[in-house]
Write a structure and sequence with these properties.
Chain lengths: 266, 266, 266
């Protein structure tokens, strides 16, 4: 993948406006809706077991986020996920807080076990926990991991058979063998609630327009990170940065992405 | 209704500060609260069956929004709605995503059947679905309808016996016979999650201060649309536009409304 | 407590970054997360009975807010609260809408009865209702109380045995005997949904770094009010004010607090 491929994927999201079905937490759900719109895609949030299969059948991708989970919600995720799998609709899993509680760790493993997940997006601690190589999670934040992040991401991808997108100062996307590093981003993204959830929404939008989910995940993260860089040139505090982040994603040009995406294939 | 009537209704909302009870989705609920405050009214969100009757009894209007529904939530809506009907408190129904899933279509019809709804506010697709004349809904967005929008809105009002407010580039408000077109608005309103929900909140606030619900609905939409126009003169991307939209509604003067409301009675 | 103590507590929050566990409403939950981050602390929202005890055990404080309650949620609050009490983790209770419905009044009293609450933060009407001295609540807003606010706050603290933080143009913090008045703030804070909830989040963050909960509560309210004053110098309408409020809290210096906190001990 080169920078022009990333720009082309962004163009494709804007042209096809894929519907991205979210079953997600109630903390950052509005941010997920607005970031999906700003990317040029179309969000829909639905969690009732009576309707999730119908909604996902209309959608280009399914985003599952366990940020404020309950056992019932996990069952809705399973229903939606099975319907997605039967139609080859990509599923993004964001295992928010895996490692912080037994319920979260167990629910993340359960969904990984029962569904064919396309991209597992988590912070370093969450990925380390799922890899079983050691990860610390403090609430919903990563508190570090044991070992080299690239090796941990690869181990997680190997163990789960799923493409892993590990967020951090440098994002790491890997299928266990190939590794793409994404170096775009801005430190204020870590001071805003929900940027991790938003990244998963964007990976959903990009996987909806490409069958190469590893490239799609890297492209989504590079685009989001580049929007963060633009926002960081306009704002110096988190909440005005947040406004600028949405606006920048909306206004970002494929030309800017082609020039400024910072990806590296190992 | 003329422009001065709209301005007078806005003044009345600000003077009486009606309580607007919402049973709504968890995606845009914060936006509904803040837009209600910016209009000069007072929001309250409550959905527990143990308390919705008490809350609605204190309120000037009830807004029911099925954006993230469950069967239990619909039962809370029914309880609150019956209490509202027994006190002649106006009810606004926003059938978000009717047509996208059986649960949504069925729930919208159920509430229309069991309650006396004052204003049914939906996008073109949703209104077409409820009218039974053909409507396409993609997730929670309208994807068009079959036939002339004014005729579809009238058919929906005729069939349901409810005043219909169909949102779109031109909003259409009709009781089946009379038709008011509202031409205020800005295209960036379609790029922000929740502007449809916010419109329903404002219709709630305006119906709380006028017994002519058709005029109240048109006045609410004209005022919101005019705030959108002002916001559009300040911002060019969705999220800063969103901030400007709330601010503009808060600061808008009755004089501005009297001058710039764009309504047309057919 | 003097102004330098307040500044020192802010420094301590930023250094220790305590985890603040929220079981709160779905209207303002995102604001609570972001304000906690802007203060320098770390938010976590979790309400499933399967995990609240684990989450609170990791946390520096627990914030319970009944803004959109259900009986099940109150039971989760009880579970979390008992785990907090057994570990001497401070609990902040925000009895949103107590007095507006029987469910809210009863739930607030139930939590006060079953748990050892560290700080009860409410508006004048809510505190008056809980004190039993007469309080009016309109939806979730105070509509006044019977008697002198300081005496009502003291009566509430006496009756409950809990430190009371009564918000208003002047905030009143009391353990029944000692009284601290906090005079920082800006009137636009009352035009933004959720500033009361955010105040409770900040009290949570400050009690997590000080064993003197009365001082911690006053310090949190003075810091928040001072951020409001700074925001009010940058914005004149509610939504841009809201952005400035988050940004100001993030950027506020201990030196500014030491100079400009307006507290008075009676």
């Amino acid at each position: 993948m080169n920078n022009q491929n990333i720009a082309d994927l962004l163009i494709s999201v804007r042209q096809k406006r894929p519907l991205v079905h979210h079953i997600t937490n109630y903390v950052t759900v509005n941010d997920c809706a607005n970031i999906t719109l700003c990317a040029g895609a179309s969000p829909v949030m639905a969690q009732a077991p009576e309707e999730v299969e119908e909604i996902v059948a209309l959608s280009g991708a399914l985003v599952l986020n366990i940020g404020t989970l309950s056992p019932d919600l996990v069952e809705s995720m399973l229903l939606a996920g099975k319907a997605a799998n039967s139609r080859d609709i990509p599923i993004i899993l964001d295992p928010v807080g895996a490692g912080a509680t037994a319920l979260r760790t167990k629910s993340a493993r359960y969904l990984l076990d029962k569904l064919s997940i396309s991209v597992l997006k988590g912070n370093a601690g969450e990925i380390g926990v799922i890899a079983g190589t050691g990860g610390q999670v403090r609430g919903v934040d990563s508190a570090g991991l044991t070992g080299d992040p690239v090796l941990v991401a690869q181990a997680c991808a190997d163990m789960t058979g799923v493409i892993v997108a590990m967020s951090g100062p440098t994002d790491i996307v890997t299928d266990g063998t190939k590794v793409t590093l994404v170096k775009n981003g801005h430190e204020l993204m870590g001071k805003v609630s929900g940027t991790g959830c938003m990244a998963a929404s964007l990976i959903g939008a990009f996987t909806a327009v490409s069958h190469d989910y590893m490239d799609a995940a890297a492209a989504a993260l590079a685009t989001f990170g580049r929007a963060g860089e633009q926002a960081g040139s306009k704002a110096t505090a988190p909440y005005s940065f947040r406004t600028a982040l949405f606006d920048s994603l909306y206004a970002i040009t494929p030309e800017d992405i082609a020039r400024n995406a910072l990806i590296e294939t190992l």
